[in-house]
């Protein structure tokens, strides 16, 4: 009985789903920036800044934070996480492929 319960318990444990977006957010951070602007003041400019890498999607991450992803062909090529801080926002940039890091970071800086 105990063995059957243990097997059923282990079979019922599953890893949380991690799709393409979660994988991109788990990848190393390519650049970290700070600004005195709040997340909602940045979202349109930041979404526009990463359009060179795909169609932007803006998602809320809790009441104060944003995740902006640029995707093409079901692949998130870049994400920009905007985290509200007491003084403004912290921006975390992750880009797939190293050739675009400087260009994306430069465009994001223009929003600050």
UniProtKB/TrEMBL annotation:
It comes from the Bacteria. This is Uncharacterized protein. It comes from Sphingomonas aurantiaca.
